[in-house]
Each structure stands twice: as structure tokens, then as C-alpha cells.
Amino acid sequence: MHKPVNVPASVIAAAIVETLVRAGVRHFVVSPGSRSQALALEIARREQREELRLHVRVDERSAAFFALGIGRASGVAAAVLVTSGTAVANLAPAVMEAHAARVPLFLVTADRPPELHGIRASQTIKQSTVFADFLRDCEDYVAPRTVDFAGIDAGAGVGVGVGADAADTSVDVCADGVESGAGAGDGGAGVRNGDGELSRLCARVAALYKKTGGQFNGEAGGPVQLNVRLRDPLSSDLTDAAQRFVRECASDAVCDAQSAEFSTTCINECVSGAAGASVSRDTGEKWNGAAEESASCEAGIYGAALEYILHSDKRTVIVAGSGAGTRASEFAHSAHLPLLAEVVSGARIGTESIKHYQELLADPETTELIERVVIFGHPTLTREVNALAQNTAIEIIVVDAHTSENYAANNARVVRSVALARDYDPLANHRWLGMWIAADHAFDVSCETIHEPQVELVRARGYKELSQYARQELAAARTPITRDMLARDIWQASWPHDKLFVAASRMVRHLDRVAASRPVRVYSNRGVAGIDGTVSTALGVAAVTEQRSVGAALGITRVLLGDLALLHDANALALTPGEALPRVQIFVVNDSGGTIFDSLEVKNTAAADIFERVMRTPQQLGVKNLAASFEWDYREIKTRGELAAALISAPKLPQIVEVKILPAQN
User: Fold this and answer.
1) Are strands 499-502 and 557-562 parallel, antiparallel or unpaired?
2) What is 55-90 written as a DSSP string?
């Protein structure tokens, strides 16, 4: 039986994967399917050559969230590949989150050819318009009908037939304007300089990938889609000549794209320095010059405010939401201003960080003192911050490097970056910052319900004192676990090389209230703030392992979620044979349903039986059985001593730790 070679599907697949790898994609997440087989096989072959990392996920929704986690943790888009039909629709929740959270994500969706659309063909939908409102861009590519690499090693030309009636039409696959010899001793025949079909495809893919990262003073990064319409036959082997042409076309396309990006970056850096906060105050002239240059560019090029110059003339607070990063904490430190940083912001660092900002903002006497708010990132966790951002009586500055949808009140001023004025005086804010720190400490003392060791008893070294200390510690170890205790102990047990992923529901709010200033890498799906895909996203975050020296700790990714979030994404626990086991420890707060609604208005407006039925939605999730089904290690903990043991001992990974919260504790 003749084995086909160089069918269009495989040539196109090789070109797409080659271009993405050269552009910087290192993680490919694949869900199996027939229409996408050429792309899946090409990815697998390159995994064997150690050119990329392949992750196989049977469920497309889980695959998309896994890729989202990779993009969130690395800042580089992962490519997720699915077949046609409803497989594409299953990507929607992750695409919406990537759009709202500005996370890079590259979708590759295999599709059926145009002639099979509009005739009720199986597994056929309008795939290129499914995500229209959530994509940075979409390329809808129709693969050619024929590719002829036959005889290339003997000096034959290379051609591709394109279009519905192009079966007998031949144009060049890769054209660069220069004839290439077919090899020594073969008569010197070369490749004709034709339409360059493959070159155009590679260029389109490279340009599409660039949009996942966004651009300063332009659209923010996010998801893009490459919809590829492939005809039968759907896969084949490739000759060496075909692979060589693919590499040449992809290399040229990526080089051109990177050259264009370099030029844009130079222009952007010229006018802004760096997107976000300018915190260095080495010379006043530097900031004055930057402001003047920004103003000239505003008038001449962009037509938008680029930089806000902060003066020490108003009582100001810095707010940091999801995605803010250390630029917010660095700016607060330089400006000597209170930092109200959500725990998912990546900015809860430094002495300026105010842990109990939510309680302080709930006091009208405090908020009345605030005259200006500078916002970094996307705050979503508390109503108090949202109310502050919508307060039309104070000056609101939103720092956003992009022109996309901004988090802002109607009266807010959106700027690309913020810098300190030349005459800015940090000491002018000393009393203002001190007031916040003192109030924060007072709340810390009054709200503390978790036992702390009395070290003075140990220092006394007397029998009675030591005995009292031992009794206290034993009693503390037997204390039932509460949500606040769980959140705080996990936070304190996390090291800089660890990662912490928190579901976007009740537990992230508990963590936000108890987490002290500490450099912990925290992740959460706060763009649309859904609980679906929590486990999958966390596993994607865990898959991004940094290059470390021999013997260095790899760290653990801990996941903090509720029982409904686990149940919602239970199939993500399926371990893929042949892939490394994830270094993940999942802490499940099993309180039998959605107890977050207990703290919302609906608790008081609905009848008890109706509230229980449609809001709390109690369930009987057998976490132990679920863990056993997917071959995860399992342990149940009830006391603080058992929690400490789970955190400090070397767990068998991956592991699920169940913490049951009794109804009385709700």
C-alpha cells in the first residue's frame, strides 16, 4: 500500500508548528481529534526532538484552562490544539478569562473545508466567529488542495495548488525571490519564484502570535485564534525537502515579525521608558524630560495621556489589583504611600502594604480623608475598593499601559505610566502613611483569633513556665481548623520558589484578609472570576518550572479551593500517562456547598428551603474516593497540628488534602 507524503494538511501543520516554536511557544496543549491529527502528530514529533513540551488533555475545556495557567505563570502564550465542532466551543470559558485578565493564549482550531460548511455536515460549525468578542485577532486559513514535493531531491519544482478549482494550478510553496539549488549532482534545477503560499502562512501565524503579548499604548495581550480548514487526507509523512522548505519559510517569517516588533519597542521605550510605574528618582531632570517627551508624543503620535506626574500635594493611596505586580509596591515604597494590595496582585510586599485595608475602607471617616487614588491592575475582591474607585469626589488615576477596556470610574484619568515629580517629598506623607500602618496593626491585634506561641514562657526556663507553654501548644495543635487558619498557615508556609493558586470564590477572600506582607507568587482567575477550570489552570501554572541549578528546590504549587470548585473541574485530576507527575498539593475546604452565599444579601431575602436548594446547593462529594479514582494521594486533616504536618512534611505528590468544615463553623 502506497504511503502518502507531503499532503497539504501535514505541510501546513509543519509550517504552523515550526513558526510557533521559532516565535517562542514552548508549551503545546493537545486534545485528540481527527481533523487536527496532522498538527497533533507534528507536535508529538517535535516533543521527541525536545523542541517543545507537549501536554495531552482529553477534555478541551480543561486543556484550554491548562494553557491559560501556563500563560498566566510564564507571560508567554501556550498553544492549545483542538478538533472541529463542539470541541472549539469548550474553549470559551478559558478564552473569556484570558480576554478579561489579559493572559496570552494561542488557539489552534482545526476546521472542515469551505465546501462542507452550510450543508449540515457532521462536526461542522462557524468556528472563526465563536469568540469574536473576546479575541485580539483571528486568522481563518483555508489549506490548499494539493502540494507537490515529488521529485524535489531529483530537481523537480515545488508547487501548491490553491483554491476551489486549483487542482491543476501550481504556485511555489516558499518564495523569497532567490532560486535555491536542489542539490549537488542533480542538474542544478531550482525552486521557482512564485506566489509564496507557505511564506504567507508563516507570516500570518507569526503576526498573530505577536498579538498575544499586547503592545504599549495599544491593545493588551490576550487570546488569538488560528482556524485552519483542512481537507482529506488529513496526515502524512514529510520528505526532508519539505521539512527544509518549512524551516526556511518559518525562519524568515519570524525574523521579519521580530524586526517589526523591535522597531515598535524602540519607539515605545523612547516615549515611556517602561510601561507602568516610574519609581526611580535619581535626577529630577530625568522625570521632567520624560514628562515633556511624553507630552510631545501625546500631541504628535498617540493622542492619549502617557504619563502622570505625582506631586506630594494630596493624601494618596495606592491600590493594587490582579496583574499589578511589583511595579505597584515599588512605586508605593518610593512615594512613601499606603499600599492597598489585593493578595492576588503580586504587590503585597513591603512595609507600606496594609493588610486590613478592607476593614479600614469600611470606615467613612477613613475614606473621607483620601483625596487621590492611584490604581494598578484590576481590583475585584472587595466592594470597598470598588466603591472607592467609583467615588467622584476624589481624584482617580488608573495606570494602564494599554488602550483596551480600563478599570475606572467615569471621572478617572487613565494614563500609561506614573512618575514622581521632581520636587516630590516622601517625608510629607510620613504621618499619612503612619496613620494607616498604626490602624492596620490595631486591627491585626483585635482580629487575631489564631494562637501564637508565648515565647516569653520559653525564655523564662522555669519548670512551671515550660509546662504551661507545653500545655498551650498541645491545646493549639488540637484546635479545629478554620478557614482563616488554613489560609494563613498555607500563606506562611509558602516560599518564594513555591506557587499558590486560589479559587476565585470564598477562600481567596479569606486569604486576602489574613495574608501579611510576604513575597509569595499568588495566582487566581480574577478576570471573569469564575470557579470553573480552577484545577486545570493551577496545573498549568505548576507546569511552568523555572530553570534551576542542580540541587535547587523546585517548589510546590499549592491550590486552595472549595468543594464546588473541585467538583466543577474534577476531570482535570486525570493524570496523562507518559507525562511528569505535577508537583501539586490541593487543599479542599469541604463545607458541603456554596457557603459564600451565606454572607450575601440573598441569605436574608430568600426562604430557607429555597436558599438551600438553589444557592447553597449542598452536595455529598466523596473527596477520598475522587482522589483514589484519579490515583492522587489523599489525606484528611482536622486540627492545626495536622495542618502543620501536611505543610512541612514531604508529601507524596500529587496530593489532595481535605479539610471538612462543620455547619456550625459556617
Assistant:
1) parallel
2) EE-SSHHHHHHHHHHHHHHHSSPEEEEE-STHHHHT
